[in-house]
Structures are given as C-alpha cells and as structure tokens.
Amino acid sequence: MADVGEVLMSVLSTIRVPKPGDRVHKDECALSFSSPDNEGGLYVCMNSFLGFGSQYVDRHHARTGQRAYLHITRTRKTKEEDINTGSGHPPKKKPTRLAIGIEGGFDVEQEQYEEDIKVVILPDRQEVTSEDLTTMPDVVKERVRYFVCFLETDSVSHTLQVQQWDGEVRQESRHAADLKQLDNGVKIPPSGWRCDVCDLQENIWMNLTDGKVLCGRRYFDGTGGNNHALLHFQQTGYPLAVKLGTITPGGADVYSYDEDDMVLDSKLPEHLAHFGINMMTMEKTERTMTELEIAVNQRVGEWEVIQESGTTLRPLFGPGLTGMKNLGNSCYLNSVMQVLFTVPDFQSKSVPFFFLIAPHAPVPSISLFVYHRAKLGYGLLSGEYCKPAPDPGDENDASEPRGDQIGIAPQMFKALVGRGHPEFSTNRQQDAQEFLLHFINMVERNCRSGANPSEAFRFLVEERIVCQESQKAKYTQRVDYMVQLPVPMDQATNTEDLQEAERRREEGDSAAPTVRAQIPFTACMAALSEPEILTDFWSSAVQAKTTATKTTRFASFPDHLVIQIKKFTFGLDWVPKKLDVSIDVPDTLDLSGLRATGQQPGEELLPEVAPPSLVTPDVEVKGILGYHGNEEDDSLYSPLLCQSVSPVLDDSTVSQLCEMGFPLEACKKAVYYTGNTGIDAAMNWIMGHMDDPDFSAPLVLPGCSSGPGTTPTESVSEEHLATIVSMGFSRDQATKALRATSNVLDRAVDWIFSHLDDLESMDVSEGGRSAAESEGRDPPPGPRVRDGPGKYELFAFVSHMGTSTMCGHYVCHIKKDQQWVIFNDQKVCASEKPPKDLGYLYFYRRVAE
After folding, report:
1. d(CA 266, CA 247)
2. Is residue 635 within a helix (H) or strand (E), and if so which, with residue range?
3. pLDDT tens digits, 424-450
4. Which positions make up the binding site?
5. Which residues are identified as catalytic?
6. Can you tell me which residues form the catalytic site (predicted)?
C-alpha cells in the first residue's frame, strides 16, 4: 500500500476549500438518511461537499473517481448521574423565561456528542490521522485543517440556531431617553391599585407620562382588562406604560403602545420616582407578561390531552412508524408529511422512484424535488431508521424505552421545499394548512407529466349564484384541495357554562374555570352548505346591483378529503387569536347530499355581460381615436382602452384600508367592486376575498384581458403553461387563461375553471370543428379529477397546541391497521385516547360501496 502522504498529495488538487456561503452536507447522506450518528458514520466528499453513508460512498467513488472524503462519526455521551438525586435526573425547573435552551426557559434534551473527524482516501479507505498531517507539507496541512475548521464552526452555529430561541429579547424604546413626564402632582401608592375608569384590580398599568392608572387589554378568552390603558394612549398619544405589580429592583414590564411591543426603559427608576415610586423597595405581586404568555401557551388540558401526556404510551417500531426529528420548529412539516405518506398515491408514486434513480445517480441533484420527495417517503416507510434511540443515561439501565427513535432528520428536504419562501425557509413556527397547500403546489409544478399524487386530493367545486330579482342563475367551477369549515361560536351547546365563566371573570373571580366551547360538527357543515346572501351582487339580467344567493356544492368527490377547522381568526382589535373549541368530528362522513346538480331544467342563465366600468369621463379613448361603434374595430382599440382608462376610486377609503395593513391593490379592488360606497362595504369585500389567490394582484378592469402595460399578444411563461397543461388542458386554453390574468399562475388556474364553457368552444374553425379535431386529436379532457361516492372515513388528523400559528406545537394521529398512532416528532406510540375533537386538519378517505 502506498504511503498515505503520497496518496494525499496525489489527490490534493481535488480537495476544494469551502468558501463562505458554501453548504457542506455534513449531517445527512444525499442518497439516504444516514448521518454521523449511524453505524459507519458519514463521508463528506471534499470536492462536491455532499455527504454519503458508508453503504453509498464506494458507489460515489466508482462513478465520479473522487478519492478524498472527510469521515465524520459521532457517539452519544453518557450523562453523569446527579449524586443528589436517586433517579440520576435533577428535577425540571418551572420555566420563567419565554425561551428554549436558555437558562430559565423551557428545557430541551440537548444531546451531547463526541465527534471524530478524519480524512479517508478511497478505494482502500486509508485514514489520515492528525499525526500524519504533522509530517506533511504546509499546503496539505492548511487545506485539510481549514476544511475541518469550517465544518466545526458551521456545526456550532447550526446547533445554536436549532436548539436555542429567546422570545424575551427586548429592545430599548425610542421614547425612553426623552420621555415627557407631566408635573401634575400625581403620586402612586405602593399597593391597592385600581383602574381609574372601571375599578378593575388586576392587569393594572400606569402611564409613564401622566401617571394615569388603567387596566390592560382584554384577552381573547375574556380575561385581562377592559382596554382602558390602550384607549388612553389612542386619546393622548402617551406611549409608555409600566405594569404595576411587576416592579422589582431588577426591572419591570414596560410596554410601548407606539412601538406595539414590550420594551426596555433604561431610565425606568427615574421615570417611576417622578410619581413617587421607589423601585428599590418594590416587590413583585403580579405575574409578568412572560409568565402570562407561558401560562396561556400551556392552557389547561390542551397540551396534555393532545399529546396524551397523562398515560404511559407504548412505543411502536416498524415500517411506516418512523419518527422525524424536530429541526427547529419543524413539527408542522413533520406532521403533514407523516399523514401524506399514509396516502397510497404518495406511497406508490414516490417511493418506487427512489429505487429507480438512486442506484444510477452518481451525484444526485440536491434541487431535484421529485427525488427528495421519494427519498423522504422511503425513509418514513421502509422501517430502516425506525430504531429506539439510545438512553442518554446509564447504558446498563434496563428501564422501559422512552419512546424516542433515532428517526430521520430531513434537512435537505426542508431546505428544498422552503427555498425562496419568506416563511418556510425560516426556523419560525408555521401554519400546517399553509404548508400543506404549499407542498401540493410544489407537487403540481413538478409533475407536469406522468403520475401526480396530489390528484388524490383534487376536486371540483361548483358555485351557483341566483339573482333574487330575475331568478336567473350563474354557474362557475373551480379546483380545490381542501374544505374549510368555519366555527360558528353562537352554536355552542354549552352556552350557559360559557356565560357563567365569563360572568365570574368579569367580576374578578380568579378561580373562574376555563370552559371550552362545545361546537357540533353539523353546525360547521351547515355554515358551508347553507346558501350565502350576497347583498351587492351586480346582476347582468337587471343591469343593477341587487340581492343574490350563492350555494357551494361538490362537482366531484376526491379519493381523499381534507377538512380544515378554521380555528385561527382575528379579534375585533385585529389581534390574531385561536378559538378554544371542541368539535365532535365524526369517524364517518356522508357528503352525498352536497353533490352539485348543475343547471336545472327550465332554469335560465344570467347573460354574460360585464358590469359597467367606473372610469373618468375625460378618457374615452374610442372617441378620441374616432371610434364609431364598428365591432370589427373593437379589438384594435381595446388594448389602448385598457391601458388608458383609469377607474374612479375614493382615495380616502383606499388610504384607510391601506393604513389597516392591507395590500394597496387589494384596497383598490375593494373600493372599485363596491362602487365607492364607503369603508364598511369595502371592508366587507376584503374580509370576503382575503383567501382569493389574486387578492394582492393588480386591478384588471372588466373587459380588459391583461393588466396595465400588457397586450393580449404578450408572451406567457412556459413554466406556467406546462403546469396548466399537466392538469389536462390544451396549450391554447392555457395560453388564453394566462393572457387573461397577466401571466399570474394562480389567477390563471382560477380563470380557466370559471370559463370551462367558453374554452370548450374556443378555436372553432369554419367547418365547425375544433382545432383539436382538425388535427386529429381528441378534444381536451379538462381538469383531471377523480370522482366517486361521497362517503368517507377518518384516517388521520393534525392537531395544534398554542395560541396562534406563530407559536406552539403540532402532532398528528394516524389510523394504521385499525390502531390509532400518535406521531410527536421522534416519538411514535400507540394512541390510547386520540383527541379527535381538538384537531385542526382532518383527513378522510373514500369508503368503497
């Protein structure tokens, strides 16, 4: 065997030194989920920076000729037993800080490892030790050591990013240094505070400008205050307030209404002394805002019930029972992907692809979505990584297994699906429903030909609008992947209990129980199935605004149905909140009665006439150009008309809406489509269209097929064309849809499903045949949707714990072989009492008749 120094010198030219910005895949194999923790460790190619497990590194060497690899192995350290405790584990401290992995915050089990890194030369796997490096030329030592140093530095930063989070970092208020304080003679006593308006004695704040003592905000559950401190700021503009009862020699809770956040006040002792408060003698008598937030996030029942914390759960291992590591607030991704790979379409159309491509890929594409989807599916379903995690305590301890698994850490997958996205590319908590739709959208884009597993969820919705004055109807269809059910709080079956709890809280009873609203599932479905009243509907039959009813029905039933319970909403003060409800979601569901019937015999349709445009009277382009009503010339002038005509909009209403935080284009459309009838009508329009895919898209006037600055002959995106064609439409139809919606994909998809009748008759030749028939092709089949009976059974649900989508935790329950299983990141156990009434996303599959 050749001298290791000579071998290393011979491959030195293939060793690239990573530069800032380079990503070295040192934690996950490119072809599997092997990691440095697994037997054999991980081999990092010192040229491509890809990682390979011990079973794949020889293949990579044979295909590429690369010889130099960095071999990384990690072994878990054994925790030293605490001599002061019999169990060896110190008691967990109660969290006092809204943080993770930081002193005073929530504990995380930070596993301690010993890491070994060495250079290995293939094919003989010659190892280059640190002693060998000392005898080699400086150029070799510097290159290798820099590579190793880069890995170690990157590893530390990654650990800090994932394992630590501090939600209590506060900034100095910009008002603190020069805060105005009135010399009004107000002196605040050291105790016995009451709101100056309502006499409330809890959640009391003192304004640091005028010393006014008032109650704080009302929380979403009815507790807290009556908003008098906030109203005082709105009336006076005095920005800073301190929470009385939280003042100690070490500080206090200070809130800036102007900056809308908890802040620091470096001059707090001086500001308090102005009103006779000696900060050094004060003692804490009220819970701080951090303690309140921790208490709310650990609301009684929700966390314990959803995670089934009160029972000893039996760990499960085997194919389809593999846990997923939390990569830093990635529980939303873990829960959704566990459920999706229970669906046969994702199993059969993803996993076989892994076996098809993996053996033949010398260097797999890190950006190949289909490959990483298949890789994740194999990791979850094969059972290869479904092994108990080693006990961090005494290895000789024969105690019961904890339920944790080694599991998989899909870091490459998470990075890929989040790339370029403002939310999913971060380590912040996200909405599982939004991620599910984002992932389905990625599947659609990457399955332009061949099998598309998202078809399992795709269905058509029919909307029937009936003008109440003419009784004529309009039918439109759109594609959807999810049913969103509102929560009618007024339909709670325990109203008396809720009212009694509210009454006791208003009276200041600190022992008032927390009562969860009981909402019947039938009430949620009724809100979906009952006709909706449209008060400002423009009827083409009567050429005026009138009242109409809109009914929504299923034009097709998918193989798998997703139902979202819309628990997340906004309060009257536009603060996000989560409805604390229990809904008796059924195990079986029959939606046959919601099947769309289409146009009824003898029913007349509304004429296809656009509503009149609101335009300035001095820009009649056709008149300026000498237009005299010749219909054949209309197409010549319509592009100019669309570019030159400007709608008359109430600027004050637009400004008010923008100040509330809504996008400018959405505000313009709200004012336009409500006919400049005022802020209330425009706000109602916004609230009814916030979920529209084109909500923030530019306003396109009726009759104009493209946005400002474009023409009907504008080129369209080939990528968008391919996506729409993959759904079953012709290229001509896709082109027309994109040109009609300014090349915006989401709007084009909605447009095409709303104009199916027009599309069927487009491109008709003089002989009366369509272009497809003239070329000998079959007519386009339309959207590919599956259909069948509307009877379903529940097989999975995703639950959320916490107060909003920005915080908390997700788990999922899946029914496997008639046994409910809870997937809580790396913990996979048999469920004893699945909390089906507290779910957020419910997944049903069709029952064969």
Report:
1. 14
2. helix 634-644
3. 888 888 999 999 999 998 888 777 556
4. 195, 198, 205, 215, 217-220, 228, 255, 257, 260
5. 331, 809
6. 331, 809
